[in-house]
Write a structure and sequence with these properties.
single chain, 349 residues, alpha+beta, 8-stranded mixed sheet, 5-stranded mixed sheet, 8 helices, 23% strand, globular
Length: 349
């Protein structure tokens, strides 16, 4: 029986892909992996200890924080602070970026953007949740890293990944050379390579969107949803509808089975709802590296200009042909949305 390849072994093998990193990127990915194991342990015993429910605080988006949101955020920041490779952490749970000012981090070259616990509203009902992370190399070469180092477009990511805490715990990541998935083996406490060279099918038969907001969607999205529901043997329609309320869970399914995940703009959210820096960009990087497509309906996600830490974006992502079809319908039935206001926001007229 062939021995399983661990995440640590795999990262070391691939270290030659990044001669500029000299091992720092490998150590950074290792630190994220260690923190995810700690968070996984707490999630698995959440019902047995006082860590379910609300923390009684809100994040910068005005969303109520769960106790596990706060716990996960603390664990990932602590791991990145102690690792010495990260100079700035951008988190959904912090209003401003966290500058790491310590002796071991004085020469750190990397910035990590993270959603510590995506889909945390599902924790109390035992539905899969996840962590999303994105890694950038700082642009400045001396002094303290600044906001200029942080506000980089998605195309400048050097690595991105997610951890899904579900029936099994998996870490999936890319460094721009394909996508690989690792499943946590609890018997040895290691992530082991289980899904090498992950690839999104060009077509799928699953669409994922919160149809509770149907009345507020652009006409193009409404038309696409109806298209998904019409019977047509040639295109295997009607498609199946699946939506969990946890982006990581829906994207993980899409990555393996194919399909499309949509969180479009609405009249109430003209910029979209999900955050560009630590949700849309890293997930777009992963899906594109697996052969899929990621857009806000009109533009490639990873080419969008980043103006602020908690910037929001719409996202339509998944199997290439399905995303292209949704884009076609948006262009045909919602052409007015392509107009932008002075702040660069997509506008529904």
């Amino acid at each position: 029986m062939k021995a399983a390849k661990t995440l640590g072994q795999f990262i070391i093998e691939k270290q030659a892909d990044f001669p500029f990193a000299k091992g720092e990127l490998s150590r950074l990915l290792r630190d994220i992996g260690i923190a995810s194991k700690i968070v996984n342990r707490e999630i698995n015993k959440a019902g047995l200890v006082d860590i379910l429910g609300e923390a009684g605080t809100t994040n910068v988006q005005g969303e109520g924080q769960k106790k596990l949101d706060v716990y996960a955020n603390e664990q990932f920041i602590a791991a990145l602070q102690s690792g010495g490779e990260c100079c700035i952490v951008v988190s959904e749970e912090n209003d401003e970026y966290v500058y790491i000012d310590s002796e071991i981090s004085k020469n750190a070259k990397y910035i990590v953007a993270i959603d510590p616990l995506d889909g945390s509203s599902n924790i109390d009902v035992n539905v899969g949740v996840g962590t999303i992370f994105s890694i950038y190399r700082r642009k400045s070469t001396e002094g303290k890293a600044t906001m200029i180092d942080v506000l980089q477009r998605g195309v400048e990511q050097i690595a991105a990944g997610y951890v899904i805490y579900g029936s099994s715990t998996m870490l999936v990541y890319t460094t721009g050379k394909g996508v690989n998935g690792f499943t946590l083996d609890p018997s040895i406490g290691e992530f082991c390579l289980s899904h090498p060279d992950m690839s999104v099918p060009k077509d799928g038969n699953i669409y994922s969107i919160n149809e509770g907001y149907y009345a507020h969607f652009p006409d193009g999205i409404k038309k696409y949803i109806k298209y998904c529901q019409v019977e047509d043997d040639a295109t295997r329609r009607p498609y199946t509808s699946r939506y969990t309320g946890s982006m990581v869970a829906d994207i993980h399914r899409t990555l393996i089975k194919g399909g499309i995940f949509m969180y479009p703009i609405t009249a109430q959210a003209p910029n979209g709802k999900l955050r560009l820096v630590y949700e849309c960009n890293p997930i777009a990087f992963i899906v594109e590296q697996a052969g899929g497509k990621a857009t806000n309906g009109y533009e490639r996600i990873m080419e969008l200009e980043v103006k602020e830490l908690h910037q929001r974006s719409a996202i339509i992502i998944g199997s290439e042909n399905m995303v292209k079809k949704a884009e076609e319908m948006l262009a045909c039935f919602s052409p007015q949305i392509t107009k932008r206001n002075f702040e660069g926001e997509l506008v529904i007229q």
